[in-house]
Amino acid sequence: MVLGTVCAVAVTVGMVPSMAQWRPGTAGVLLAGVGLWLVELYRTPRDRALEAATLLGVGAAGALLNALAPQSPGFVLTFFAVSGLGMRFPLRPAAVLSAVLVVAVDIGIAATSAQVATSVTTSDLGLAFVFVAAAATRSARAANARTTVLLTELEESRAAQEASAAMAERARLAREIHDILAHSLSGQVMSLEATRMLAERTGADPRVVAEIERAHRLAKDGLAEARRAVGALRGEALPGPERLPQLVRDAQAAQQVRATLEVHGQAQPLGPEAGLCLYRTAQEALTNTAKHAGRGASAHLVLRWSPDTVQLDVTDSRRPGSATAPESPTVALPSGGYGLTGLRERAELAGGSLTTGLTEDGFRLSLTLPTRHGTDSPWTPSVGQEHGTPTAGGAR
Fold first, then answer.
1. Quick count: other Cβ atoms within 10 Å of Cβ 206?
2. Average pLDDT, whole number, for the chain?
3. pTM (two decimals)
4. How far, CA to CA in Å, does 161 sit from each of 165, 167, 233, 317?
5. Whether the Cβ atoms of residue 393 and residue 315 lie closer than 8 Å to each other
6. What class does CATH assign to 240-396?
7. C-beta separation of 266 from 226 below 8 A
């Protein structure tokens, strides 16, 4: 665009020395030709026919200037027009329109030049060279665009193949989990139900029946977790922070441990892996409180949202006067992973961090994860919302 403008100015300035020999109408033709060329450069018509007419006008002005002022550089406008046609239009229509301009220039040369053959040959060769170069440039640009499209399609195809392979592997793992874990848990559920019924019929101690019922519920919860894990491997929705209140209530049904869930701030969108990491961390914390703090212990879960991060703090404490270990055997809650090592790995993979440590009468765990705006629908709790039930918290 800048080069075209410089050339137009150069042609106009180059016409000045021959002004004394200008024939009537030369100035008007020059202004019209240069004006149309600037329109093509800066306000290219969207209509293809109008653009072709604009370039033909530029070329015709150059041919007329070649006839009206033979010693001037006005003929260069025809070269501009031919180059524009070669770069902007398909080969055949561009060649036809350029041939019309070549004929117009040749007619002007024949009417004014003493050496017609030499001048026509020189002009035609120059115009042909400009047209071939412009057409080759257009062809190269089109080939580059096609190459870019093909590369994009290739990358998309490769990504689709990788995703397909990953889904196939996840489906295989889902089948293995289902066949091994889910089947065994189903057997445990049936066995525990039969044991409970037998204990009731034989007049067993009510505490034994209660423990069997707890074990039965835990086995059912574990079976549900296994099915959710299978569903996650098959691409179904993963559990996230929206299920923390239910997790607290489910934990209360399994252990006589007091717990509360407190939420602060406006919930932000979380990626699937980050949401699952938060849920599993809370789950593991509740499991470890049931294992280590014993009955009568308390747990406080605090979820704090900010625009860029979400933080989960879990603090548990033993019942005043109780020992560190549970007073009696307890039924463990479903575990979320492989302990603190697994939790730290999950947090790091999700771009966050996990810190843990002992407190005066218990244990504290703190998880920080980044939020991801616009990826998933956020969970929107009330600010300061609390869920209080006997359950578990903390992590070992």
1. 10
2. 77
3. 0.44
4. 6, 10, 17, 50
5. yes
6. alpha beta
7. no
